[in-house]
Amino acid sequence: MSLESFMSEAISPWMKSKGPDGDIVISSRVRLARNLQNVPYPLIAKTEQLEKIIMQVKEKFSGRSHRKFGQLELVNMNELTNNEKRVFVEKHLISPNLSTESKAGAVLLSEDESVSIMVNEEDHFRIQCLLSGFQLDEGLKYANDMDDWMEEKLDFAFDEKRGYLTSCPTNVGTGLRSSVMMHLPALVITKKLNRILPAINQLGLVVRGIYGEGSDALGNLFQISNQITLGKSEKDIVDDLRSVVSQLIQHERSARETLLQQSRNQLEDRIYRSYGILAYSRRIESKEAMQRLSDVRMGIDLKLIDGLEGNILNELMILTQPGFLQQYAGKELSSEERDQRRATLIRERVKLELSGELHDGGGEI
């Protein structure tokens, strides 16, 4: 797949299928941190050393076909514009840190974008596998498969007592970070989430915003992941997260049912007001768009809105971000211009969905 294809498709191919519990769990991610033996970590390595690693990856893996994920393509960060990097972040293919801080970074991507291997971020390699819905076990299986595939040609830093060695001590051991992206509007509306979060933190898990550490929980989207890697097996880490996420799913479903039974009129009013704003507004800011999309997504999942698919909102949550808006415009936009284009794009996208043109083979914007 070409760079142009990565940039032009708002929603990654893997996101188009609805996974288990997909009305609440948007995606599951498993990430493995790995480093090369006898090479300084990216934070202290010289630029020449990091560039040499990128060359190794290009020679050993770029264009090579994996038995499950097909051909992988290497994209060098130095060859992208700042806005193109921003688009990669908005699609969750790279971290904000790789986009802005790396002296010489790259990413190795699978054709369906379900595998993204960041090169020279905080560690030499961050192998991440992304799946739709609640699929942590499958994510771990695929990440380990990719880890084995890479280790056939690379020597990773490993200590018999400590496990895999990483730049940050919190990742030492398995080097595993598992996470899920959850849509929790009912828990936010009922204010129950504030009581649940402290308990989650006490269990060794952390709750972050949509783009990970330091980001906001836009559109009622929360990323929940493990904090501890040392002294725990990969299975234990995934099992602990799965247990907490399963309980959160139950709490969210219960909160949605409570809203339907006790505050149905107010809930419908909120959802349809948001729908009306998305369908008719002439300008809308990013934060408001995410909140309105969250409301409408809940309305679709509760079958209060007909004619729209939940995936349209997965797509719009990415497509309406600043990087994508400017990518489609082909130029840098002012804040006001972005707000106007965002509103236009949402209106047209909703109209296409309702008309059925998208399901008849059309619908490209």
What do these coordinates show?
The protein is an alpha+beta fold. The protein has 2 domains: 3-253, Glutamine synthetase/guanido kinase, catalytic domain (Creatine Kinase, Chain A, domain 2), CATH 3.30.590.10; 255-353, no CATH class. The chain is 45% helix and 16% strand. The chain has helices at 3-8, 47-60, 82-90, 96-100, 136-151, 185-189, 193-202, 234-262, 264-280, 286-301, 310-319, 322-329, 335-355; strands at residues 25-34, 65-66, 70-76, 106-110, 115-119, 125-132, 158-159, 163-164, 176-183, 205-208, 221-226. A 9-stranded antiparallel β-sheet has the order 2-3-4-5-6-1-9-11-10, covered by helices on one side. A two-stranded antiparallel ribbon has the order 7-8. A hairpin with a 3-residue loop joins strand 2 and strand 3 (70-76). The longest helix has 29 residues, at 234-262. The protein is globular, with a radius of gyration of 21 Å.
Give a concise summary:
This protein is α+β, with helices and mostly antiparallel strands and 365 residues long. It is built from 13 helices and eleven strands.
